[in-house]
Protein 1
Amino acid sequence: MDPYTPKPEHKFSFGLWTVGSVGRDPFGAPVRDPLSPVELVYLLAEVGAYGVNFHDNDLIPIDATPAEAEAIKREFRKALEATGIQVPMATTNLFGDPIFKDGAFTSNDPKVRAYALQKTMRAIDLGVEFGAKVYVFWGGREGTETDACRDPVTAIQRMREAMNFLCEYVLDQGYDLKFALEAKPNEPRGDIYLATTGHMLAFIETLDHPEMVGVNPEVAHEHMAGLNFLHAVAQAWEAGKLFHIDLNDQYPGRYDQDFRFGSRDIKATFFLVKFLEDVGYPGPRHFDAHAYRTEDYEGVKDFARGCMRTYLILKEKAAQWNADPEIQALLAEINADDGSMAPYMGSYTPQKASALKAFPFDRQALGRRGWKYERLDQLTVEILLGVR
């Protein structure tokens, strides 16, 4: 068997909106006919995915009658049972309908804010019905083009009120569900509140139930702001808040491109995969990306297979990196510790502080040290290029 064939234990998932993208963009009409949720489940089963995620209206149109909604759910459930595809995550579309043009939870209209809560509660019920354990919040319209419209402090307070309300709703219903907040700096709004993963981590600590809420970092969103995605993921992991993750690729400083995973910056992608595998991240590897607009649905399958295949190739490369004798020898040398600083480090004591202030460091000698990072990085590149 091909060693890069996806298996259920790899937990690769896609959103209905990813493989179901019809290729519309701001300058052009759709290039692919829409497929139903059932058809998309079978497409994902064909390419070897483990899971499918959805916004509420990816599955059930916003104006569907109760009878229509039940029929759609019935057919979707049959497809899941027939294929074994799981639903690990769900979310709400609070950005597509014109009612949300000034935001959802942060809108200046209290009726819009109330409708957003109603819509989200119903969408949470839907996600839980299909087994979702994580609920993602992306505030696509929670932003502004002019700060004349509202005080940003008011926006933060409204976001907090909404998240506290929805946490209480989940607790009251007895759902086994956690929330994951997804940051993005801009688009479709000129500026979006809580623009990076770091912003979200700080915001979470102000909530009534911070233990229920983590983050869903996305490669493209951090790269749009020119940031290092690995560092955002590492901070979230270290804080115990990496509840979900969105994998794709992106050129820095551009519009949200949602490229196939690993198609743009292979070295950054490698270190991300290496981190997730090294720490044993247990959640789904969710690909929030889209096939090129040039593709038909065979091309969409190529896109989905490519996301998973690249991840597995880089997982193998990460194991090779970890086992490479020269790389490990360099790391041992770089991180060598003779124990001489141990008496001065760690928790503060007055005695440690006095002793450290008096210690005679050889600043010139320390400054002359070469760290061999050039060699270490070159060895990484050679592994990725397949010559090592």
Protein 2
Amino acid sequence: MKQLGSFSRLAGVAALCALVANLSLAAAETGKAEITGIKGSVTVDGQAVKVGDSISPGQQISTGAASQLNLFLGENGPTLLVDANASVSFEELSYDKTGAEPVINTKINVKAGKVAGYVKKTSSQSKYVVQTPTTTAAIRGTKYQVSDDGVVAVWEGSVSVTYRGNTYEVSAGQKFDPSVGAVVVNDARNPFPGPINNTASSALGGAVIITPTRPNPGASEVQPGR
């Protein structure tokens, strides 16, 4: 009988843990990436897209030569720029505001090309990761650029880069260069030359994406470079 009672208690604890886990999963909401600017040829899962469309986790973004894509990620960003000849997907876009601090998780997979982002500061439990074939960049409240060759450039904040089992801390004004396996001076062009506001166009690699004014006055985009 004692063994039966112990089993019942264990079963009750397991059921409670499962309930808590399910509640946590239910509380987390899936984010989305809204297209706010397009230049040139951009497809998602092989289909042409337009400003106002949304991209969900798992969908494949492809940009052609001399093309760019500007995305508004909301809680998971707010801003991401996808450069020419890129192949990019979101593995995770989620946020949970039910706790004492919001938990926001973002994971971007860069198979080819490069992306640049402006990321607001989030809670210690949140994660924003950009994965390339050779590096993993954990980003914390910053303006950054990550290329498929593993170069990680930082203009504000800091990024923790993992490369071949080693971790490198990259601060504002620095970049990680895998060709030398070290943190060096950031000589890359700043993809965010102006202040962040809600009526934006964005520059990356010299080209400009014209972005219409968003209806939400709290939305953040990027001002054109001068």
Protein 3
Amino acid sequence: MTLVQLVWAVPLLAVGIVGAFITSDAAVITDPQDVSFDDFVAPLLVILPFTLAAVVLSMVGQLATLDILVQRATGRPISVTEAVKNGLRRFFPLLGWQIVAGLMILVGLLFCILPGIYFGLVCSILTPIILLERGQGVGRAFQLFHADFGAALGRIATIFGFYIAFAFVEGIFTTAIDPSGTAGTGIALFTAVLSTGFSVASGVVISPLVLTAYADMRARHEPFSTAYLVPQP
């Protein structure tokens, strides 16, 4: 799982490194009149390709990490190569459904925030659905989530609790290293590496929780066994 997570960690680290140098250069500008439009656009154009690569590979990494777990759970030989291939095969379906889910969450947030949070909780099992069930998407997520609402809510709340815990601990380390937030390039680079490390660790820890949450919801909705985790052809 760590090897798979490193696939998308490389461009993520590149974003942090480039951002560290850009921040260092921006800190030299003291007179607001010296700031031009290009001073904002040029750094964004540099970071944008790495950011897009990180987003794309993060989705492939999520799918591939879950596939590693499925290989293990179903007794198949563990293959990082096969997991990444499966992640690439299911990337475009996941991308399409993630866009739909993102729009739903955005609209929900505009309507008093709570609907957006609810949609976010439901769509948190979208990745294993896309990996393991062909032709299914957001509708399937609602179906499984409501099979036993209380149990599903508890599972997903635990997952979000881990996300918050990782973010909190990372914040403690970052604050300890750079309390003022104005450290030099060297500290900024170290912080970028640290942040990437936390991202990889959170992916390794949380992915099993996502898969077991999905499996538990299916078991509460329909007859289910571990063998059903084998991706449909």
